[in-house]
Amino acid sequence: MPAHPSGSPAAGPHLTYYEDFSPGHGALPPRAWVPASDAARLSLNGLWWFRLSPTATAEDTAFTRPDFDASRWDILAVPGHWVLGGHGAPAYTNVRYPFPVDPPRVPTENPTGDHRHTFALPEDWPAGGETVLRFDGVESCARIWLNGREVGVFKGSRLPAEYPVGHLLRRRGNVLAVRVHQWSSASYLEDQDMWWLPGVFRDVTLLHRPAGCVADFFVHAGWDHSTGEGTLRVDAPSGGRVTVPELGVDVAVGETVTVPAEPWSAEVPRLYEAVLTGAGERVPFRVGFRTVAVEDGVLKVNGRRILFRGVNRHEFHPEHGRALDLGTMREDLLLMKRHNVNAVRTSHYPPHPAFLDLCDELGLWVVDECDLETHGFAEDGWAGNPVDDDRWTPALLDRAARMVERDKNHPSVLVWSLGNECGTGRALTAMARWIRERDPDRPLHYEGDRTCADTDLYSRMYAPHAEVERIGRREEEPLDDPALDARRRAMPFLLCEYAHAMGNGPGGLAEYQRLFETHERLQGGFVWEWIDHGIARRTPDGRRWFAYGGDFGEELHDGNFVCDGLLFPDRTPSPGLVEYKKVVEPVRIEGDPVAGTVRVTNRHDVADLSHLRFTWSYEVDGVAAARGDLDVPPLAAGGTTELKLPLPAAADGAGEAFWQVRAVLARDTPWAPAGHEVAWGQWPAADRPGSLRTAPDPERPHRPRHAEGGVVLLGPGTFDAATGELRLLDGFALAGPRLDVWRAPTDNDLGAPWQSDPRHGLLWREAGLHRMRHRVDGVVAGDDALTVTTRVAPAAGSLGLRTVYRWTADGDRLHLAVAVTPEGRWTLPLPRLGVRLGLCGTLTRAEWFGGGPGEAYPDTRAASRVGLHTASVDALQTPYVRPQENGARADVRRVRLRREDGTGVAIEGGPPFWFTARRWTSEELDAAAHTCDLVPGDTLWVNLDHALHGIGSQSCGPGVLPRHRLEAAPASFGFTFTTLGESR
Ligand code: IPT
Q: Does residue 915 sit within a domain?
């Protein structure tokens, strides 16, 4: 085994311990994480005494003395971040360091938290042996004293450190003192895109190490797919025996044994209970047999190609920052499993060690990433990058070793990642070399070096679809060096980040997935990112909202770029996660309406279909008219079958009909109960098509007539004779409907500053689409219609939309046909094309037949199912942390908006339309910075859109694909309005 590389580099004479290049001193060599053994342990988590100083008062260490009186200090929960515990404030920057770049020096203004904790040993704490004090994570530099004696210093915030303290301990009255500096030389290595959150944010534990304890151990458990056998060898310097009772294994440490065994995979996470018995300690552990290898240019586990349906996960909790409890970690994994996510990249640092135990248990492929990012050096062309400066190399090697040693025994950890966004340099090569020697059995990942010189996988972030497709064909742009090029071209490819989930979106997921499923080399990717890092706050009147960069008065910040996850900060799934679940579903269900068949394809990497139960239903106007079970054979992974569907009795009635086939869990699993839906397919019945028509002219048209008060009456409608606007619908006051093309720009509309493609959210505003004026050119009450001719255009330009509204009526029904003709040179797509109307705010309930239940846009609509849906108007809103366009429902045939008493307005589309309703205007939505800024008014604003522009992911990735652009082009569409009397 290679020696632990950290050593103790000499600190420069003028550098203090928190500014020197070293990773610290005094710590024991890193070792494997052990969740539990029969050795005693004592958690020191709890309420500690705390004092915050504005500077690193390095000389004043009186507080470390046992007799120091800290009773006037504050109290702080450990684990925790003091900035979330009432002391100072969090700060968010993406790339830029929030202090002058002058490595390894840090500012004099260096918030420093002194912590004190007094504890007694339990009565039964064993005598003899050693006792170790363990910290699982402290940001960013900790200096530690026990009973007045200094035990050491460490950096490496998301990595453990252990100190031998047996000689300092007493039975009771032990005083642990920890000084934590927010800024240290290590801050230069920890420039991840996240909040700066200092503190003792992971567990602090005292561990008894009996004589003859298991100092460290390394489980090597491979699986041979040609024989079905597992091979196990456990290395441990302290010796001992290894037993796996279920497999009848009982071997010495260091001995290799091969036995028939079931493999471990993310889909079938088969673990075997094992015990390592040393002379003085029994360590239970779990074995998952699996072999990961790059073969023939493909990443394989147990001989099979796998496809990452992944997410990038930062540790985040809206109240506790990166101090996550076990329940939250488990919740993250349950949510992932329930949404068909099968992989996690631990961006951009090793997670709490217990998280990986849960990944082993529940089944996730893990890319474990080192706590390393020096992105801020990119601002100056990477000048001075620590990664390419030998003085920092020991600290970087120390980080690699602490990750690998801690996490090496997890079957879930498939890949080591050297870090994120830290340029290139010799230290990366040194880290790679050290890791390969220590653990040759896992491939290496690092995205930041295009040559892939130190890695085994070709990885990119945010590459557009077209480029990914070229890579899929192994036809990417060559590297200058032919040898490196050949090497890289033979590598598997993954998108370590893609589909930037900031605000509304990401769009374009389905198109990526199609590429992954077409080209063997493309092994999927990891959506950026799992959760919005919004910090929970309350308005004075108690309403909760989530803060982002700038909300704490930071002089430098990156706004809401920190809120770019598939979960809202409170872990409610956003529409993006629902979409991802559908797009990556491991079973593809496609119908052939003409043949009356369904094709089922098993897209699992490993599992057959025996864990699923299939059902079919035949739905007429959104109601299941017939349903039953579907007998799907337990297809092996990769298999396809075509099955005949029954002929339902209801097939020859009236109404629009759809087939739906669903795959649900047949039995309870550790992550979801039986009946949980995994995949589905829906398609229109061949003989029962929908009404894809434009609103017809009525058969017996009413004639519009002028009446007193400057109005025109037509059927149930009362119009303003001057403007032609509908004012009343059978007693319901209305504003509009008028043409509307504006939407409150989404984060993806606005794009990122570094994007070279047009950023439509900005261009729309420049063109004035948010301040369109409506000129009325004519209001003509003809024989059978009221025709209103207008031109809709912004000031200062020649662009316009000639818009003709043609109103007709029969009986209780009022029809509107809209014809739009663009005028001028439109080079911009339109945000939306439809009408907006204002209705009475007492209409609070929506029922619609169309796509749902959730939000959908042209390139985020895979999860939208046609059915009968209901929701309150409030529930139609998607609470993006920074308010923006949201809440559209796709393919809506008809919608009813009702008051509490059941009265209301019904709108039918010809053809189906996009429906949006909110209690504020798009302009108010646009102006709001936080959800609490949105205050409902008296009007219900309804958008009925013929078309919408796609979403894309330009907030950090490619924009809207051409096929989802809404070009300005002639269009016609229509709606029918009626009123609803009291129901029931
Ligand atoms: C990329 C980072 O790796 C990630 O940490 C995060 O910042 C993400 O972008 C955007 O949210 S780097 C980006 C400049 C491509």
A: yes
Cα of 533 to ligand 1 centre, how many Å?
14
- Residue 91 shares a structural domain with residue 147: yes
Contacts of 627 (CB under 8 A, 6+ apart): 615, 616, 617, 618
858 and 947 housed in the same domain: yes
Report CA(96)–ligand 1 centroid distance (Å).
12
Q: Does some domain include residue 766?
A: yes
The reported pTM is 0.97
- Let me know if residue 726 belongs to a domain: no
pLDDT tens digit sequence for 943-976? 999 999 999 999 999 999 999 999 999 999 999 9
DSSP for residue 469? H
Do both 450 and 481 map to the same domain? yes
Q: Which atom of ligand 1 is nearest to the CA of 95?
A: 7
Cα–Cα distance between 18 and 913 in angstroms, integer? Answer: 61
Query: Are residues 660 and 629 part of one domain?
Result: yes
**Does residue 413 share a domain with residue 365?**
yes
Residue 652 CA to residue 647 CA, distance in Å, equals 10
3-state DSSP assignment of residue 770? helix
State if residue 461 touches ligand 1 by the CB under 6 angstroms criterion.
Answer: yes
Respond yes or no: is residue 267 known to be catalytic.
no
How far apart (Å, rounded) are the C-alpha atoms in residues 397 and 433? 10
| 463 and 598 fall within a common domain | no
Q: Identify which of 93, 96, 192, 193 to mutate to test ligand 1's pocket (most ligand atoms within 8 A of the CB).
A: 193
Domain count, the chain: 5
Q: Are residues 964 and 826 in the same domain?
A: yes
Residue range of the domain that includes 253: 218-291
866 lines ligand 1 (CB under 6 A): no
Catalytic hit among 139, 421, 579, 924:
421
421 catalytic? Reply is: yes
List, for residues 903-950, the tens digit of each pLDDT value. 999 999 989 999 999 999 999 999 999 999 999 999 999 999 999 999
